[in-house]
Amino acid sequence: MLMVQDATADTDLRIEHLVSTCLHRAPSAEVPPYSREKSASRDLQAVMEQGNRKSELKLVSVDEEPYFVYTCTEGASRPFAQGIGRTPELAICDAFLHCAPNFPGTSASPSPQA
């Protein structure tokens, strides 16, 4: 689970390194603000939704506090990624940090969470 304090340039850099590994490209010189901006997190969501994958983002309440749950499935609803965060962007980032090692041809390992 990613919290508001995890919405940092360091988190974005970890994600960018994993994105570059998954997509077999060099990391961007200008790291997108995946954890802080909707447009950048949507780009990350598009990476996870490649092929036959679909996603869903839900607002849930835990101890009367709002959290977001992002779920990405492939095929006949087979789970591919799931993340939880205090913002939609953080839920998407959390899911990506956990699913990056599952991308075909990738030997990336998830970074420890803050």
Short descriptors:
three-stranded antiparallel sheet; 114 residues; 24% strand
Characterise the protein shown here:
- The protein has 114 residues and is an alpha+beta fold.
- The protein has three helices and three strands; from the N terminus they run ααβββα.
- The chain has a three-stranded antiparallel beta sheet with strand order 1-2-3.
- β2 and β3 (78-85) form a beta hairpin.
- The radius of gyration is 13 Å and the shape is flat.
- The termini are close together.
Give the structure's gist in a few sentences.
This protein has about 110 residues and is α+β, with helices and mostly antiparallel strands.
Question: How do the strands and helices of this protein lay out in sequence?
Answer:
Elements: H1 9-22, H2 38-48, E1 54-62, E2 65-74, E3 78-85, H3 88-99
Antiparallel strand pairs: 1-2, 2-3
How far from one another are the termini?
10 Å
Order of helices and strands: HHEEEH
Strand content: 15-25%
Percent helix, as a range, is: 25-40%
Largest sheet: 3 strands, antiparallel
Query: Mean pLDDT, nearest integer?
Result: 88
User: What structural class should be given to the helix and strand makeup?
Assistant: alpha+beta
Shape: flat
The number of helical runs is 3
Say what oligomer this is: single chain
Round the Cα radius of gyration to an integer and report it: 13 Å
Spatial ordering of strands, largest sheet: 1-2-3
Structure summary, number of beta strands:
3
Given as residue ranges, the uncertain stretches (5+ residues, pLDDT < 50) are 108-114
